[in-house]
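My hope is that you will study the record closing this message with an eye to the fold:
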Amino acid sequence: MLYQDSTVKPAQLLESHIDLLRHDSLPGSILDLAAGDCHNAVFLAQFHLKVIACDKSQEALHRGQRMANRLGVTIATWPVDLEVEGPSPLPEDVYGGIIVFYYLYRPLIPSIRNALKAGGILIYETYTVDQPRFGRPHNPDFLLKPGELRQWFDDWSIIHDFEGIRQDPERAVAQIVCRKNDKKR
């Protein structure tokens, strides 16, 4: 166990790739996109990383802030609706890392690509169309089609790529860990 407190339960994919985000050459802060209760952000903050947790739910962000305070770490919170029409709420070329777990809003993908600085790391995991046989979600708007996640980032340097069934709990997911190259798509 890498973290100090058993109440902080980071995503397994994040935990297994933490060294990519702890690297001295990371070109900026880390955005925990659709952070929910901020477990992943608090986990990262325990490594003295600068983390911004964003979510639509101010209540969830407050819970995360209380957890961070209890553990003596610092996270920034940003209450934001990522699904607004018009210009993206994500600033361009700002973050050294972006993490996304179990959130999918396809119109935001170009903004995620643009928000990460060259050399930055993306860690993304969410459900695929096979998930309904294990439980929620069932709405196809929240489920990746085969190969979809990889296709969005296929011009980046792929470090880890998985699509299939994971255990504990059993779920159908796609995962990608990649580094943004200098070239633009």
The mean pLDDT is 94. DSSP finds six helices and seven strands in the chain. Residues 6 and 127 are 25 Å apart (CA to CA).
